[in-house]
Amino acid sequence: MPDSSPTLLYCRCAYAQVVPSGVKNEVLQRLCDAGVNFETVSDLCEMAAHRDPRLAALSQCSSLRIAACYPRAVKGLFQQAGTPLSADAAVLNMRNQTAEGIVGQMLAIEPIKHIEESQS
What we know:
Low-confidence stretches: 115-120
Largest sheet: 4 strands, parallel
Distance between the termini: 36 Å
Number of helices: 5
Shape: globular
Strand order of the largest sheet: 2-1-3-4
Radius of gyration: 13 Å
Structural class: alpha/beta
Number of strands: 4
Order of helices and strands: EHEHHEHEH
Number of domains: 1
Mean pLDDT: 88
């Protein structure tokens, strides 16, 4: 049976420092505690600025779930790098969502409904 698990991506937002550190740290800890596979990147903004080829690979992952900041900003970063996100990608906003809510959505088996634009 093929693995239908979502691809999980956690952005540390290391350079802009716009995400509350408590939320960032708790999301990371909860993902580690859950024992799931996920990829961590230092900063998606920096990767987009340098057109990091890993963004292209990530954008092609099915059921990609990204813990970062505003969905519109993250989608724009991938677009800027020439690797737009697929329609089923979900961006979870560590700037204004709780760590518990983010991790719950990241680990959910069901597909995530698209985030409201008011959170973007």
